[in-house]
Amino acid sequence: METKVDEEIHAWLQDLPNVRPDGEAKSDQFRERGNEIFKSKQDDHLALEAYSKAIFAAPAGSNALALGHANRAVILIRFHRYREALDDCQLALDGNYPETANKLKIFFRQAECAEKLNDAHTISSIVEGISAIAVNRELTKLEREKLQELQKLAEPKASNVSDQHATPVGDNLSLPLLKEKRNTSQGRYVVTMDPIEENSIITRETAVSFVPVYDPESRSSLPPFDCQKCARVNVIPFPCPECGRACYCSSVCRKEHKSLHRFECYGYQKHLWYLIGIAHLGIRSFLHGFGSIQSVALNASNSMSCYQQLMKLTECEENEFYQYGRVLRLVTNFDRMEMSDVLQYALAGYLLTIYLQHCTSFFSEYSSKQSHGELPTPDLVILCGALIYRHIGQLVCNGHAISELRLTSASAQRCMAGKGFEVGLGLLHRCFTSSRVFTAIFPRISMFNHSCDPNIRNHFERSTLTVYATRSVAAEGEIFNCYGPNYKLMPVHERKSLLKQQYCFDCRCTRCSENEDSFSDCYNMIECPAEDCGKRFAKQLTEQDLFNDFECIHCGKEISCEWYRIIVEPVPSDAKSLLRHIKECLDAYENSKRLLVGFNQSRASLLATILDHYVPYAAHNKVYLHSLKKLAVEYVSLRQHQFGGMSLEYIVGCFYLMDLLAMEQACEFGQASIDSNPAMRKILDDFCAALRMVGTDSRSLIMRYLRYYVTAKC
User: Fold this and answer.
1) 408 vs 185 pLDDT, higher one
2) Among candidates 417, 464, 409, which has minimal Cα distance to 433?
3) Could you report the per-residue pLDDT of 638-656, keeping only the tens digit for each?
4) How far apart are CA 399 and CA 536, in angstroms?
5) Among 122, 258, 569, 670, which lies 20 to 30 A Cα-Cα from 460?
6) Do 306 and 297 touch, CB atoms closer than 8 A?
7) How does residue 162 score in pLDDT terms, banded at 50, 70 and 90?
8) Per residue, what are the HEC states of 311-344?
9) DSSP per-residue string spanning 122-175
10) CA distance linking residue 56 with residue 575, whole number of Å
11) pLDDT value at 316 more than 60
């Protein structure tokens, strides 16, 4: 029986505004903008973005949706993205494309893609489509000749179409044997039974479930272009036509994910998943795993006995429910959490159960198949709510953030050059940002305990996590992950507070037990400039400190930060003032170095500001380009020391230097090749090695840039 609370939650879900506008007007507006850009021969990437926006805004089954796909295919063919263009053509043909005459153009456009992909099967289907049109419309001589060519190509032969959306297969490696242990002080933890060498692979695991990380601006702008089926990032987007929000890299991935997405589609239409945060991964984990536990539910008499049986059956890592069973056995920490947090997660689980009841066909499908003696639907509702609630609690302390390089949009930063996906000269630093793209659950790797000084690093390739050793680990040694608070990124008291709040434990790792505040000592050290003082002290400078000056804690004298105010001034618009201000910034930075000593993180921030402002103008002046290059080398060193040489932060920090090297070579400012400069050669080699941290698609784009602009010129 539905309660008053159920009714109110259901009403609230229904009253949530739709994300996508009604009708085709918005889609038509984006498509017309794309047409204008295309006809005026402006940046084709802007046209591509406009057509993608038209697709996202178009109602399912509409003329606007078919036209959006058809128009985008033209741009994609120009960019040699034949697989995606072929998909676009097919979706245009399958949709409500308005004119028979233009349908013929779509078929021939699709045929061009299929030829490039050597896809005889698709060419055969295209021949059938063109022949069907020819029954009612006489083909021109050119069209008949092209049809005859296609008929020859349609003869069966081996196809070399690459499966670009497939999850990469792991290397055939001999990995160390890991063993799960348990004691009262540490709980469950993992040790290696074999010695592990530095930089070797410890383990590899594919996520059981993952969901996108939502940008705060995502209600009014496009969602991230990341595939919810295979976890490819920066893809040509193929959104669900019903909700216009869930994104895929191809129509294949979209089709394969439909059996799960149909239960989430309404939530996307209402922007629900953005509103509930980590709870989205809770319901996604449940939907992924329900099929494996359905047999237990079918034979249970009530929800309580079914839940208890599931907990008993999943006590051990190896159990009959495979990956989902490993998720079920993860801890929740409900008994250690603040009651307000427990209540919040319980209400989220309750809300999602009401959502499944009233906004999807989940429970009605179960009821239609139900036989006598099976778990009654009301009990199934309670069981599902309990499992979703459990998953939310588990994911708060076991979820992993998948980070990748995010491509900036064409309208935000015009970084691409030419007729394709190539980064323009000097624009690599504006092309990518380091971002959290997915939140995922890796149940085996979640068993690793935390340390503020971990002995592993994580590398994500789509939804697969590979764990590397940052130092050697002896046999029987414990494997430590870092849950976020790292001794190089925040002081002891902040680390302990955050870990206690989210993970409900008091950190007793080596860095915390010794109460060593390496962060403050190493990354926030200041030397008083007063001649009669000169003493050092640790202080994490705020923006207010830098704008208003601050006092030395030893002598009490005011320390001027005029150098900071010079560096953060807006970039002048005229060339003469620009060159003058670059010199002022370089001088101001030299003054700051007398105050901000060692690896002070404020120095890194100053360098990033100078480089971000002036790298795009470096090619105008040889002297300043070389000065900026020195600053870029210094910035790379600071990033490497704080974040490590195998991190996205280090890679992004290197982009400034790569751009300056590219401009130096292109403008023939370089006095010698990189190979004759051992220090620069080592930085470049280290950077290329670090690119293993980056997904295949982003890595290939960056390597093409290096080969064309940097190494090929050396």
Assistant:
1) 408
2) 409
3) 999 999 999 999 999 999 9
4) 40
5) 258
6) yes
7) very low
8) HHHCCCCCCCCHHHHHHHCCCCCCCCCCHHHHHH
9) HHHHHHHHHHHHHHHSPPPHHHHHHHHHHHHHTS--------TTSPPPPP---P
10) 41
11) yes
